[in-house]
Design goal:
About 30% of the residues lie in helices and about 20% in strands. By secondary structure, it is an alpha/beta fold. It has a single domain (about 5-154), classed as Rossmann fold (3-Layer(aba) Sandwich). Strands 1, 2, 3, 4, 5 and 6 form a six-stranded parallel sheet that branches. Strand 3 (about 80-85), helix 3 (about 90-100) and strand 4 form a beta-alpha-beta unit. Helix 1 (about 15-25) packs across helix 5 (about 145-154). The protein is globular. It starts with a strand and ends with a helix.
Amino acid sequence: MKKTLVAFFSASGVTARAARAIAEATGADLFEIAPAEHYTAADLDWTNKRSRSSLEMEDEARRPAIADAVVDMDAYDTVFLGFPIWWYVEPRIVDTFLEAYDFAGKTVIPFATSGSSGIGGAERRMHTVCPAAAWKPGALLNGVDAAAWARHVS
């Protein structure tokens, strides 16, 4: 039986809202990619070059720890993967998630939220981080009906 997972990282709640709408529209399970160490407002201050998020994004090898693991990832064959765009790409914690599981034979459909950047840079980068996945084109869901989009692409 085919199962779908909506996995997401959300710093402000915007991506979480889209993820919940996608899960409800597709009947998917929901998994939050929550950091083991919660991000504070100071951690997320992108204008501070010494903030935690700035330091993580400065180092492509950085892999922030995730609080929990997906129970039985092998049961899923489709994964919607949501995140905010940081520095034109996905946050490093999303890379942690992609490297934690075997995505061979799984379809991955990215979706993102952003104040100004597109999803293209993140898609290119994630394909190199996780080449085993069967990637479908993703979407930037700002002002888009996330549920309708998910029903269309799944």
